[in-house]
Amino acid sequence: MFKKFDRPRFDQSRHETVKGNWKCSECGAEITELPFEPAPDRPIYCRECWRNKRNQRFER
Asked: Where is the CxxC-x17-CxxC domain (predicted)?
């Protein structure tokens, strides 16, 4: 039986990043690396704006 701490941890270093030149849809900050391939019809947020939007969603 596995305990909570026996599970392997998520290792972000194994995931590839997509390099490019984008601008944050919220503040206009330059974004050069994303952990996913962005869809052209969806907004892209910098780390700070993404956190703010995420926190707003959970505060409701």
From this structure: 23-54
pLDDT in tens, the chain (60 residues): 555 566 556 555 567 899 999 999 999 999 999 999 999 999 999 999 999 998 887 776
On whether residue 55 sits in a domain, the answer given is yes
What is d(CA 16, CA 6) in angstroms, rounded to the nearest whole number? 25
- Provide the number of structural domains found in the chain: 1
Could you tell me the pTM of the whole model? Answer: 0.66
Query: Is 10 within a domain?
Result: no
Cα–Cα distance measured from residue 46 to residue 32, given in angstroms and rounded to the nearest whole number: 10
